[in-house]
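User: Hi! I'm working on a homework problem where we have to compare a predicted structure to a textbook description. Could you give me the structure for the chain below?
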Amino acid sequence: MTHVQFIKTPSGEELAVLPRAEYDAMISAQSLHQRYDEDADDVAIYDARQADLDNSTGYLPAEVSKLMLQGNSRLKAIRRWRDITQLHIEFKTGISQGYLSELENGIKTGTPETLAMLAKALDVPLEWIA
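Assistant: Happy to help. Predicted structure tokens:
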């Protein structure tokens, strides 16, 4: 049961006076609520980042980044990460091994259709290839 007393200061300000135990309980409940809100915000941020990764629009896998740091183009790094040969890509897509080599070495850029076929053959998002 709350025992609140309201008083008015000489300047007209209204104040609420309550027992210390009730004040402490109110502050404790507010603190718990703030921590819950902060935890909920953290969970929401984590869930959003995880959804990005689950939708495969997130970051490149570390292995691909490592291969790129070793001098491979992104396309070649992804192909090597998937452990697929150029000949296998040729078989799956009809893109010649020579043309694929030119794409991987930056000699040619590839049409949107070609890049879409490569992304499908490598089972990665188009954004990773384009």
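For your comparison, note the following. Residues 20-54 form the longest helix (35 residues). The beta strands are 5-8, 14-17. Good luck with the assignment!
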